[in-house]
Each structure stands twice: as C-alpha cells, then as structure tokens.
UniProtKB/TrEMBL annotation:
Keywords: Carbohydrate metabolism, Lyase, Polysaccharide degradation, Secreted. One of its GO terms (cellular component) is extracellular region. InterPro entries: Pec_lyase, Pectin_lyas_fold, Pectin_lyase_fold/virulence, PEL. Belongs to the polysaccharide lyase 1 family. Residues 202-316 are annotated as: Disordered. Its main location: secreted. Coiled coil: none annotated. This is Pectate lyase. GO terms for biological process: polysaccharide catabolic process. GO terms for molecular function: pectate lyase activity. Residues 217-235 have a biased composition (Low complexity).
Amino acid sequence: MNDHVASDKTIIGIGANAALVGGGLTIGLPVDDITAPPANAVHNIIIRNISFSGATDDMINVQMFSHHVWIDHNDFSNGDDGAVDIKRGSDFVTVSWNRFHDHDKTLLLSHDEDAGPQDTGRLRLTYHHNFFDGTYQRHPRVRFAEPVHVFNNYYRNNALYGVASTENAGVLVEGNYFESVAPRSTSATTRARRGAWWSDATCTSTRAPRKQPVPWSSPAPTTRTRWTTRQPSRPLCRRAREWARSATDLPLRARGHGQWPSHEEAPQARGGPLARPHSARPRRAGARLVPRPPSQAPRGRAHLVSRVGLPYHARP
C-alpha cells in the first residue's frame, strides 16, 4: 500500500541505509476521472536518498496533474509493478541520479493509449544520470509526452528494450551509454513520429550528416547508435565513439543511494562534450527548486529541452 504525499513536502532518507520496504509513495489526488488540472493538484515535491524495494504496487506513482516533482539519488529494486510511474496529466518532473536494478517495469510515462485527453500537452520530463542495471524494460516507456529529454544515463544488461516512444510522443535521447544490451536500445511503433538510427557511417559531423540516415525499421547498425524522434532529418549528432562515452565519467561526489558503489564499477573514460556543461555547474546559494517553463528557457541544443525539468543550477 502506498502513502500519499501532500504538496510542498520534501522526503529525504537520513544516512546510507534509509529504506522503504514493501510499500511506496503516491504523489497526486486519489481520483482518476478529470481531464483538467484541479486547483489543488499536488505540487512542489522532492524525494531523495531512499531505497525502495519489495513494493506490491508502484514504488513511486505520480498522477492526477501533479507538477514540479524532483526524484533524485534513490535506489529502486524488486517491485511487483512500476518503479517510477508518471501519468494522468502530471507535468514538470525530473528523475535524476537514481539506480534501478533487479526490476522489470522501470519507468512509465502515461499509462494507457486512451489517456490522450489527460496527457497531451503535459508530461514534460527530464531523465538524466540514472543507472539502469539489469532492469528489463521501460527506460522509459513514453506515450503522448513532449518534450521528454533522456540524457547521460547508463544502461547495462537491459534485456527487452531501452527507450520506447509511442502515441506521437517527442523524445530526445542523447549522451547515454549502453553496455551489454540488445543491438536496438530504443524502440518505436508506427503510432510514433518516424525516427532514425545513426552510426559512424551516417553521423559524420557534429552538425548535419553527410549521408542519409538508416530508417528505424532497418536492421540496427553494429556500432553504437543514437536515436531521436525530434528532427530526424537534421539530428544534433556526434560520432558514436564520442557521445557514447559521455555518461561514463559522471561525478560520484554525493553519498547515499542512487549512485554506483565505487568508481571502479563505472567505465573509466574521459567525460564527453555532453557531460561537462551540466556536471561542471555548482549549485548556486539560494537556488530555487522551481523549473523554468520551456518558453523561458534559453535557446540551445541541450538546454531547451532539459529545462523542462529541474534547472541545472539547482542540481546538487
């Protein structure tokens, strides 16, 4: 059974062994039949440094137009349903620096193909610097949401698929590292906007490719690839050997959950160009934990979508 979290709450586990076993947290009103944001929607929530395991339902469930939620530095494992499910019109959520392991249904974004009236135009999220260690599927599984930014995550031994984008979702996937996974680390169906696979043979520049992309329906190339449903005709691409390593030299300064146990378990490589701008920014004193709306975000390849979630200057 899940406990309900009210607005303006911060839940932080104290010490390295803070845990919630056999249950989870629900962020959102206990209703499901409205299609417009209510005045009392749950908002301004931070969840950090907790180990979730053994839940019979979702370990964290964000629903019913909840907004401005930050889920950071947690550990998720061995639950019966979703690890972090975000649905029913929720908005402006960041999922960062978490470790997911020994689990099946990892990250769900929109719960059903009939959820368009609640979800379209909402579900604006950022997933960054998460470690998916032996999880099976949904990294994340996205419907309707746009924009969604998935960057600098580490995927290892993921059996079924990485990122799935359907129901006209818009997902930007970049700067991630894939190790011991199936050749195709992202997937889509014909309901989604057409995407493309990129490899060294097709992505020859940091600006625009010199050759045509490989259609996503073709066999996956053998080299490491990057895929996005946003602007498939003009990808913001880098050579695979450059961008694929950018998530492997993440700073592990923080202590607690949601990090690799040691530096040795993370591949040792110099940080790529996508990792440095974000990890180099120190937290400014008195920084507000309130994301900027996309209309106020500065223009730029990485920043426009990323500021959907928590602004970089407010990261720890």
